[in-house]
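User: Some background: our group keeps a shared notebook of sequences we're curious about, and every so often someone picks one and asks for a predicted structure to add to the entry. Today it's my turn. The entry only has the sequence so far, pasted here. Could you supply the structure so I can complete it?
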Amino acid sequence: MKNKMISRLAHDAEALVAATKDVAGDQVQEARKRVDSALEHAKSIYGQVWDKAIDGTTAVNEMVHKNSYQSIAIGIGVGAILGYVIVRRCKKCCAVENAEKEA
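Assistant: Of course. Here's the predicted structure to add to the notebook entry:
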């Protein structure tokens, strides 16, 4: 969704620059230059972030494949801890609700 939003913003900015191409005036020309510059800078940053995200997912993927049993054990451990915390919290909530109903 964010990718579509960024793409749409870039498209709108390019359309604005193209629409004001024939408009005269120093302020309009300066604004066009700033928008053009900002658009190019944003595209550059987006590309860098995209590349880092791909590199990160590739590294995680390789790590999981190299250490599959450890990854499974970590996943089971985290799931067990979360399950314990959730069940414990639910028991406390149920106990309070039952005490209120009985009173």
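Suggested note for the entry: The radius of gyration is 27 Å. The helical segments are 2-19, 26-66, 68-102.
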